Automatic annotation (TrEMBL):
Family matches, as Pfam families: HicB_lk_antitox
Secretion signal, residue range per the UniProt entry: none
Occurrences of domain HicB-like antitoxin of toxin-antitoxin system (ranges): 5-49
Gene source species: Syntrophomonas wolfei subsp. wolfei (strain DSM 2245B / Goettingen)
Protein name: HicB-like antitoxin of toxin-antitoxin system domain-containing protein
Length: 56
């Protein structure tokens, strides 16, 4: 499943990732590769906790 992700530079040098279709699904990382891995894991966990999936 492909989900949209928004990357934003943080003030402290970290990159912030947010998946807007999954409320509260946010992560961060030092590199683009790291933050994408982290948000992928966060989205998988979010979807495991929401049996019906996101309310779109």
């Amino acid at each position: 499943m492909k989900l949209p992700v928004i990357l934003t530079p943080g003030e402290d040098g970290w990159i912030i990732a947010e998946c807007p279709v999954l409320p509260g699904c946010i992560s961060q990382g030092k590199t683009k590769e790291e933050v994408l891995d982290n948000i992928r894991e966060a989205a998988e966990l979010w979807l495991e906790e929401e049996p019906a999936g996101p309310a779109l």
